[in-house]
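Entry 12.
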Amino acid sequence: MEDIKFLERIEEEVIRMGGGVKKGSIAKWELEAAQEIRVSIRPPRQLSSTELFTLRKLEPGEYRLMLIAVPRKVDENAANGNIRHLGYSVHDDISSS
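Predicted 3D structure (tokens):
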């Protein structure tokens, strides 16, 4: 439960700064099958994507994922409730883990 509170504190701070957060989880079997977690970006009208980073050599297990996007400059208007959710999660967060 303490780790969920930690993630919620990060989410609150990122949103306050005008950024976006997307949460999810990955099951042990998914990581065993895939062997890595990749994050990439793709413009809406383009088929190819650009890989930003990859996590490799993680022990197979259940992981909580959090993708955060923090603006380089904090815009006061964005911090006043203009929340943008970015990213992609494998599936919804594991319920009450």
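Annotation: The first strand starts at residue 20 and ends at 26. The two ends are 7 Å apart (CA to CA).
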